[in-house]
Amino acid sequence: MTRILIVYGTRQGQTARIVNEMTLILEAGGHDVDVHNLKESRPETLGVYDATIVAASVHAGGYEHEVRDWVRLHAAEFEVRPNAFVSVSLSAANDDAASIAEMDAIIRRFCDSTGWEPGRVVRFAGALVYSEYNWLLKRIMRTIVRKKEHGRYTDMTRDYEFTDFEEVRNFARDFGGVVWMISTASTI
């Protein structure tokens, strides 16, 4: 059995939902998965894991500070094993050139600031969760969405989920398969 570490940061909980879905798929594939919300707990040692997934959500053009700080401290330790970075953002819901360029720049800044070059980078669309925002953030998000989405998704009495969970499950299956193949090859 392989051990996979998933560490993540989240603000309104969508990244946690994505991590939970990945965990279910990886465990169904026979992997032992340890999950840590870096705001609440940190893994004690990384040497016991066969692979690492780092997941973080974009807020104000960057990822959670606890994720950046943790990756900066441990990047060299998990770069020697299969690893992936899961980026969660509203921009990932758009496939226009401007949104892609914006996300490329945010991911590049993260990699440069942490010294980590992920083995794989995946982008999942997040959610617009007005119910979790304070009064000011609701209005800021509505203004941003109004400009980018031509007035759609501005009803602050409801939430909007953009995550394609089939994409999430496919990534988890694929990553788990790679980890299994590498661990099996190293024991032969």
Secondary-structure map:
Layout: E1 3-8, H1 14-28, E2 32-37, E3 51-59, E4 62-63, H2 65-78, E5 83-89, H3 97-114, E6 121-125, E7 127-128, H4 135-148, E8 160-161, H5 165-187
Parallel strand pairs: 1-2, 1-3, 3-5, 5-6
Antiparallel strand pairs: 3-4, 7-8
What does this structure look like?
The chain is α/β, with parallel strands linked by helices and 188 residues long. It folds into two domains: 3-126 and 164-187, Flavodoxin domain (Rossmann fold, 3-Layer(aba) Sandwich); 128-161. 45% of the residues lie in helices and 21% in strands. Strand 1 (3-8), helix 1 (14-28) and strand 2 (32-37) form a beta-alpha-beta unit. The longest helix is centred in the C-terminal third of the chain and has 23 residues, at 165-187. The model has no long low-confidence stretch (mean pLDDT 91).
Short summary of the structure?
The chain has 188 residues and is an alpha/beta fold. It has helices spanning 14-28, 65-78, 97-114, 135-148, 165-187, and strands spanning 3-8, 32-37, 51-59, 62-63, 83-89, 121-125, 127-128, 160-161.
